[in-house]
Amino acid sequence: MAEEIKKKYPCSQKDLYSILETAWENYDGHQPEFALHKALYTVLLSTNAKAAIAAAKALPDLQARTEPAETLRVSLVDKGETCRHNFRKLKSYIITAFPDEEVQKAKFEAAGQLYYSEAGNEDWESVESLNQSGSNFIAANSVALLAGDNMPVGFQADYDGDKGDFHDTYTDFKTAEQTSEQTAEKIKANNAIFKTGMDMMKDGQVIFVEDADILVKFTFQSLWDLINPPVAGIKGNVKRASDNLPLGGATVTAQKEGEPAETTETDETGDYSLRLAAGTYIVTVSAPGFVSQSIEVVVETGNYRTIDFSLVAV
Length: 314
What we know:
Elements: H1 13-29, H2 31-37, H3 43-58, H4 62-97, H5 101-111, H6 113-119, H7 124-140, H8 142-146, H9 155-177, H10 180-207, H11 212-215, H12 220-227, E1 233-240, E2 251-255, E3 262-265, E4 271-275, E5 279-286, E6 293-299, E7 304-306, E8 309-311
Parallel strand pairs: 1-7, 1-8
Antiparallel strand pairs: 1-4, 2-3, 2-5, 5-6
Helix pairs in contact: 1-3, 1-10, 1-12, 3-10, 4-5, 4-7, 4-9, 6-7, 7-9
């Protein structure tokens, strides 16, 4: 298994881009001083660094990467329910064909009964197993099921048609859901521009160590505070309860009574940050396919409350 690519920058990616763009603008204003320190500090270096930032920003964000999978998931829910409905029809045909109740239980299980419940919880492999078991059962028991004008002649073809339709959609869904490679590409690009920018700023701190007014222009934290002044708010991380992996693209909403709601989204690693005025808020975290969570939070002036969430799939 390939090693997981982790971000090396301490902020959200939108803040990273803004900080680095500002840092390289500051560099342009002091390029001659940098060049006196090291000859590698040319005008072209800044041009290339800004181009790399633009290229990283242009890579698809989380929402763009996950939209196809989410659209297919909605389709899978509908098609999965069609398959479950087909199984319920099959059970009714089994009851007529095999009136002995003790026999019926074994027949139901042979037809896929053990997969039925989980198939209704977006367990797509259970839907696949339910469909396959039902198809196999119909083929093996078609004479008994068709006898006495019980199961319609075309039911097996309809059953297998819906089975195939679900399988094709599920295959497309699994392909669309494989966004880890693109996620790694985005984070790798962000890590690269972060390193280039930090290398330049570290030298800037050496060059301007005795000039505090210029020094702050090449201090990462100072630039971060400039973009996001340290005020009150909430921050934290959102994960999936099933596997404890980060849940990017989740919506975090803070609602103070009588005031408009404040909203943000988690980044690639599930992190979020939301500046708020002091007061009491209902903080809600939601994401497609997951049960929302809400808690009451008291935000105090000059303090960021850390609140982590773990969402359970619907």
